[in-house]
Amino acid sequence: MKDPILESYGSDVFSEKAIRRHLPKPVAAKLLATMRKSTPLDPTIADAVAEGMKNWALEKGATHFTHWFQPLTGGTAEKHDAFLEPCGPAQAVQRFSGKNLIGGETDASSFPSGGLRSTFEARGYTAWDPTSPAFIKRHENGATLCIPTAFCSFTGETLDMKTPLLRSIQAVSRATERLMRMFGQKRAHVEVTLGAEQEYFLVDRRHYLSRPDLLQTGRTVFGAAPAKHQQLEDHYFGAIKPRVLKFMTEVERRLWQLGIPAKTRHNEVAPAQFELAPMFEDLNLAVDHNMMIMEVLRQTAEANDLVCLLHEKPFEGVNGSGKHCNWSIAYGGRNLLTPGADPRENAIFLTVLMAIIRAIEMHADILRMTTAGAGNDHRLGANEAPPAIISVFLGDELNDVLRQIESGRRGSDSSRRGQKLRVGVDTLPPLPKDTTDRNRTSPFAFTGNKFEFRAPGSSQNCAQSQMVLNTIVAESIDAICDRLDTMKGPFNEKLQRLLQYEVKAHKRVIFSGDGYSEEWRKEAAKLGLPNLRDTPAALAPLKERRNVELFERYGVLSRSEMLSRWEIGMDDYRRRIRIEAGIALEIARSMVRPVVADEFSRLANALGQAKSDGLKVGIRGLTALSSKLGAGLDDLHVKCDRLERTITRDERPEKQLAAMDDLRKTVDRLEGLVDDSRWPLPKYREMLFVY
Ligand code: ADP
Ligand code: MG
What we know:
The protein is of the alpha+beta class.
């Protein structure tokens, strides 16, 4: 029997199967080698590849092609070209050349460049990334061939997320190869892998359209907490409502056609919050796939009269959304973060583990940078998501192993000798891969065979954090190799001494307790761990010399590329908050105030009437309510003016945020006083619960 799901899996991808069917044999072989081993593409086969790809795309109903790339806005970008070309009066052919495939020239003037590009040189170049396969995007009237590409300026500076990611993969691969040589391992392919868990909210489109704040900023700037929200913890892993399940099923069908291995789906902690996790894949591919997942989520929601919110904090008072990035590194197909079967494998595991701990301890600031953004500021540091302090969670067993390494002066204390772990000689105790008792408050946690970075926001491109993680780990591995090179003695003993030293030097970053607690905040401050609370603080490390030198040394980002990222990040932050302030002011003045004023005047009239009629009852109630509403109206007036001043004077974003928060208090209080049928905005209890 034919399995329709298997039949359609990857059907919209220029996959190995499609390549073999549409390309001449030698061309297919060369292309597949490039895709698998990341060897440079032989330019002489470009035309043949393009021809085969075009024929495949035409079969799939495509009329256009586009170089699909990831500019520094955090989203994706595409400009479509028709295959169609005229070839005489009223005659045309479908054409797609090797040149079309390999590179394109785009007007880049409206993409953020952070001053990298002068206006007279506004051209940008896209270059095909053959390691991520081409795919088909569908819409109601047809389809488009999408070619994953890198994007750079005329002078070669990167203007996208993919280029530095690819460079960083190369950096960590090289360092890993070097380390493996030291361990006497055969040459093998290094693969960095990512499994990105995607959280999101769904709201009914009706509600969305009546919320100008959601429409314009992706989050609600007003809205009182409903009586019931997530206190009962009854949504997490609860039965999925039929309307949502229908949506999820459609999302998965589409993702499977795109060869994206969507695996798990469930209700998340907050009402109306959900999660989708694919199986982990090669990092570069997984990043592209996550960008596609976000798009498919949005589009499928629309088709179901829903709206998918990817903002990190659409609703105050309930959990926000993150994107847990599960990262690991494999050598010759073996995951180096899996404790091995024999002492040698364990020694490799411990060395790689130590390199990662060292990297986080030394470069927590630049890793935190990758999660900066106006949206994520509402998560990090609040009492739900990982704190802004980057620490490492290892679990009891590994903590114990590291303690043994740290304390182990081998042979000096024969009575305790048996208890101390000798690297390269002993095997490790079994480590549980338990999913239940993990420390959810840790931003960077070892979860059995991978590290899970939990700080990235739900809307952010994971390329950013993964690029930094790769680079700092590469640096750490190299530093360990350098030391081993200069040390004397038998290898295992050198390694033991080195690891002992490294544990001592970097253990302050390891933390097993409650990451949300005030005690940890104080303790971390004492330990000197950075706590970069908001976007401006988190972006600052991009300008620090030691970071610039590190990224230049590994050829991942140049000084100007780092500076440009700082500029783009700051601009984005300011603009977003300015937009939020603008829409908050507009809603408060033109939607909330008229309703409050109207209700107040009705009440005041009723009160006057009641008094003149000499009524004995109702006066107290009317007086109390109208004075509350009157005070609210005054407050509204004062706070709107204050917010407006922060805008017109172009005050710091922090000031605008504070004025918005203050205004919110008044509006949310009024929400509970004004006649429900007249309140101009859908309320939280409607948006979060009504489907
Ligand atoms: P949880 O929510 O319990 O953390 P999920 O199943 O939601 O677990 O997500 C775990 C993610 O980690 C999945 O995307 C999974 O494929 C991924 N993952 C598992 N092993 C690895 C690995 N070796 N490298 C990278 N990611 C991995
Ligand atoms: Mg999960």
